[in-house]
Amino acid sequence: TKNRPAYVQFYVTARCNLACEQCNIIYANADQAEATTEECELIAQNLNSIGASVVLLTGGEPFARKDLHLIAKSLLDNDIHPRIQTNGFASEIRLKEIEKIGAKDISISLDSLNPDLQDKINGDMKNSWLRAIKAITNVNQIFPKDAFCAFGCVMSPSNLNQIIPLIEFATEIGWWVSLVPAHVSKSHHPRGFRTYDKNLLFKEDDLKIAKNLLEKIKLMKKEGFNLYDSDEYLDDIYRFI
């Protein structure tokens, strides 16, 4: 795999229905034109020609694009496995479109089981947590039993006490969890998926809690809980923050 991009993130849009505190994509990538459906088909062909295996369709909110199922199909048609990321914006009808074309790998952003905290993280968007929970329910009803479903959880100082319950919940319903640490950048140096909010920087007390949390999560993995991040990656999270 060293001479080919086995895993590719494809930002299909910068549009989003949320303004999450850990993300600045709607600002950093707002000046990037979206590829048309036809251009996405060419991109899929090119990714196939250079040996890509998995492509994450992300944004923004990918389901803001009405042709998302066509983009995913173009990847499948080129022997590439599409993984779709959403914040829960996907409606039942849109999820059925995805299932119909044969895509069955989805990640829903969820950082907490506390509705008020999640709504705050999502930019004080009321009922955004509830919408994500409804999307989870719809995925479980629509997607086949061999589908791969996961929560993408951003680890920040505000939700450190929420991560273990989230992993327990995911395991209970047959989903998985992947963590990513909050990234902080500066407004004069915008980068994708980096916040400008300095409150998301880990302070000394936060680091102690985070270190203990990550060690406990490693033990949970050995006990069979559904976290698919490697121990090496979890160590890298701590080094990063």
What is the topology?
Layout: E1 7-11, H1 25-28, H2 37-49, E2 54-58, H3 68-77, E3 81-86, H4 92-100, E4 105-109, H5 115-121, H6 128-142, E5 148-155, H7 163-173, E6 176-181, H8 204-222, H9 231-240
Parallel strand pairs: 1-2, 2-3, 3-4, 4-5, 5-6
Can you walk through the features of this model?
A 6-stranded parallel beta sheet has the order 1-2-3-4-5-6. It starts with 6 loop residues before the first strand and ends with a helix. The protein is of the alpha/beta class and 241 residues long. The longest helix has 19 residues, at 204-222. It is built from 9 helices and 6 strands. Helix content is 41%, strand content 15%.
Please outline what is shown here.
The protein has 241 residues and is of the alpha/beta class. The protein is 41% helix and 15% strand.
Distance between the termini: 28 Å
Rg from C-alpha positions? 18 Å
Strand content: 5-15%
Largest sheet: 6 strands, parallel
Strand arrangement across the biggest beta sheet: 1-2-3-4-5-6
Question: How helix-rich are the residues, as a percent range?
Answer: 40-55%
Low-confidence stretches: none
According to DSSP, the number of beta strands is: 6
Number of helices: 9
Key features of this structure:
alpha/beta, 6-stranded parallel β-sheet, about 240 residues, about 15% strand
